[in-house]
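Narrative of activities, Objective 1.

The group set out to show that a structural description can be obtained from nothing but a protein's sequence at a throughput compatible with the screening campaign. Below is one input-output pair from the validation batch, recorded exactly as produced.
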Amino acid sequence: DVQLQASGGGLVQPGGSLRLSCAASGFRFSSYAMSWLRQAPGKGLETVADIMNDGRTAYVDSVKGRFTISRDKSGNTSYLQMNSLMPEDTAVYYCRASQGYRIVWGQGTLVTVSS
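Output recorded for this entry:
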C-alpha cells in the first residue's frame, strides 16, 4: 500500500522542541518532494516547509530560523525539527509527498504548545 505515517506530535511548553517524522512506504520516496503542512484550530491549511528531491528547502516566514525540514536519502523518512516553539504553532501537522499530479497524504499528528 502507498502510505505516509506521521508521528512525533505531543504537548510541549513554549520554547521547547519536537521532531516530527513521516515514514513512507509503497512508492519511490526519493522521486517525490516532501512537505509539512499544518492546520491550527479554526484556520485553514498552511504549508510550513518543503524539501525537493534535490534537497532544496523552503519555509513559511513564521517558522524560518526555528524549523528545519530534512529527508533521509538512504531511507524513506522525512523529518520536521521544530525548535523555539510558540503557542501559535499549535496545530495538526500533516506530511505530504508530491510528484506532479501524484499526491500522497499522511495522517495528522497534533502538536500543542502550552504552559
